[in-house]
Design brief:
This protein is mostly helical. The chain contains six helices and no strands.
Length: 132
């Protein structure tokens, strides 16, 4: 990978390679290869492409690639199939729309249809109090 970048003056290439090997110890070869490809193609954000990455930066990107590979290899969890819901009658939908728009008669009609629903019953009472 270092051959893809200009040589830095005063740096021993053997020592630099050893630093990379220490930094990537334990990281799978595939992740190292992906990290090298990202650096060589200039796709690593905040990296000056005129210089080789530091061993620490390279190892960090290699670990990120290892995490990506791990995530990609996990089995996908499929959402359970959606249970069909009973359709709401058109008349009820019309009344709900009218009640949402402030119709007091629609609120009273809904309260009669759903006497056990506290939200609808309260809305009907509030509409009744506003009238009277």
């Amino acid at each position: 990978m270092l051959s893809g970048f200009p040589a830095s003056a005063g740096i021993d290439p053997d020592m630099q390679i050893r630093a990379y090997l220490v930094a990537i110890d334990g990281i799978p070869a595939e992740a190292v290869w992906r990290a090298a490809r990202l650096f060589l193609s200039g796709k690593v954000k905040d990296h000056n492409r005129a210089f080789a990455p530091s061993s620490a930066s390279f190892a960090e990107i290699a670990r990120q690639q290892q995490a990506v590979m791990t995530a990609q290899s996990r089995p996908r969890v499929e959402a359970p199939p959606e249970q069909p819901q009973p359709k709401v009658a058109a008349e009820k939908m019309r009344l709900l729309r009218q009640a949402a728009n402030g119709s007091r008669s629609a609120k009273r009609a809904l309260a009669e249809m759903f006497p056990d629903n506290p939200v609808i019953a309260k809305a009907a009472r509030d509409a009744q109090e506003a009238v009277g």
